[in-house]
Amino acid sequence: MPEKVAKKDVRKFWKSLYDSLYEDVDRDMTRERLLDSIDDLEDMFRLRGHMAVADMALSEIGGKLVLEIGSGAGGHSALFAKYGAVIAGADITFDRARATQAKFDLMGDLAAGCQAMQSDAENLPFAENTFDIVYSNGVLHHTPDTKRAIDEALRVLKPGGRAAIMLYCKSSWHYWINMLLCVGLLRGKLFSGVNWLGRATEWGGKNIQSVENPITRCYTAGELRKLFAGYEGLRLRKGDFYFYLIPKLGRLYRRWQIRHYGVHPGGILVYGEPWPIQSPLELWLGRIMGWSWFISARKPVAPGQSYPEDKFQRSRHSGSAQ
Ligand SMILES: C[S@@+](CC[C@H](N)C(=O)[O-])C[C@H]1O[C@@H](n2cnc3c(N)ncnc32)[C@H](O)[C@@H]1O
After folding, report:
1. Please, what are the domains in the chain?
2. Relative to the CA of 270, which ligand 1 atom is closest?
């Protein structure tokens, strides 16, 4: 069901979080630093089994037309551009689209043909059957009409084209324990009459956050099957479990975690700061009860037509829907 949330409030929140997380990093960015940061980002994604490397065949995306919906500060798009993909980066927040474009500009020839624009996932300014791949990480659960955005992604994909989309997972520790039990019930936010999950998620950055996140949703596997009913070959796997997200106790754990495992510079482009390295236990728990669904599916071809050669990697971590 679409939620009554004004898009201006969505933009306002993501603009404020951009200023808080990335503005200083982007201000000082040089081509050399960006290229190093893209390598670090790829390394971090490999460590985590993130869909950007596990579900996208980076060595095969050269020359492919890729749409990134909600490109944010542009880290993922820059990584795909480095591998020769021709990227359209679309983000509803002007400063984020501009940050993505600035990264393409710094990359110069390495990002030839890539372009970022301010655009709404629910009304994409592209003709149908345009893209080989649609990629979107942690975006479509923050738009009022998620179903419409998923249908838009299908519309602009070429027949046989692939979608790689991350949405939050309801069948997760983070939802049931950290959010629903600790924030929703014990702190009483569940009864606030607004989208309480939005208010409770996406906090971060260097500034004190004063603008509220109007909307966050999360999904069960069954709900995803309905949302992606128009696609074929749906594959779901879970990832991303962090002890440090447990309210109160998590802060203590985070200090220990950083001392014990260290931090990874790959976080700079996507979190504005180094990423605290996860323990092997967290990586394992992520596959069972993680907060992210890594979703992969393709647009059906017309009867009698054959599929383009499937260049997407079968992920080592891929499993069936849970
Ligand atoms: C959590 S951030 C993710 C950014 C990026 N994908 C990443 O993983 O670093 C969510 C992004 O979605 C964008 N967004 C939210 N609603 C959108 C919509 N309806 N259309 C396009 N972008 C949207 C926000 O502006 C923000 O950049």
Report:
1. 7-298 (3.40.50.150)
2. 9
